[in-house]
Fold this sequence. Notes:
- The chain is mostly helical.
- It has one domain (about 5-310): Rhodopsin 7-helix transmembrane proteins (Rhopdopsin 7-helix transmembrane proteins, Up-down Bundle).
- The chain has eleven helices and two strands, in the order E-H-H-E-H-H-H-H-H-H-H-H-H.
- The protein has a two-stranded antiparallel ribbon.
- The model is unreliable at about 1-5 (pLDDT under 50).
- It is found in: Cell membrane.
- Odorant receptor.
Amino acid sequence: MPNSSSVSEFLLLAFADMRERQLLHFALFLGIYLAALLGNGLIITTVACDHRLHTPMYFFLLNLALLDVGCISTTLPKAMANALWDTRAISYQGCAAQVLFFVFFFGSEYSILTIMAYDRYIAVCKPLHYGSLLSNRACAQMAAAAWGSGFLNAVLHTANTFSLPLCQGNSVDQFFCQIPQIVKLSCSDAYLKEVELLVFSFSFVFGCFVFIVLSYVQIFRAVQRMPSEQGRHKAFSTCLPHLAVVSLFVSTDMFAYLKPPSLSSPSLDLLVAVLYSVVPPAVNPLIYSMRNQDLKDALRRLMTRDVTKSKK
């Protein structure tokens, strides 16, 4: 019986068979990828360079932008290369690296979004304790915990998944390497260990989701009790972008993993995978910058300063 050591490469799902459509998909995803790099890069640079934005909210936003860049860079470049060169192949090591980094960035991003909900809860419901509960040290520790737990989770999943004996071929029914697709190729009952890990991960994700929901219930109650309309507007303007990002993140994930088997098809699964792995990293910078005047002003100051320096 062949095992995983006999598999030297995997075959990813192609976006299209016709050469013209392959090149069209390459151009489309190149545009999305560059937009994601530009948007998240501007947020990272602006927050890092403007001391007015050195606050917990923007510190976590910087972490989110870094994770978005990592997440989309794990999947899209290989898919674009395959479309450009008309191939489906990815090496065994490359597939393992994709699984490792995608689970790492994806899990860490969900943890950061949960921490950002806590940040908004403290800012709105306990503003007098904001400085003590979200000190620089506390923020650094929470961010480190998010990145560290994401990495540990990714290592466990990757090691467990690629220790499975594979005897169902090497075709992955997705445009990047996913754990469920690799597990489908297994011919051993050992895949139950990976299922147990996935159940644990989903339990953690569900716990984070409940925490976010409860945080926003308390936030909306506190906002309704605010006597000032300006205060309510400010609270909503800082909370709504995060809530929109969480909604996009959770809704696409839930549809991808909880949809009925009767709805599954290669085309639909491919579309859903694009929605939750490609769209959020590209759209998140737009969501956060649209209603955030402080971020817009900081970006304007940064660009003005660069223009002034170039003229001297």
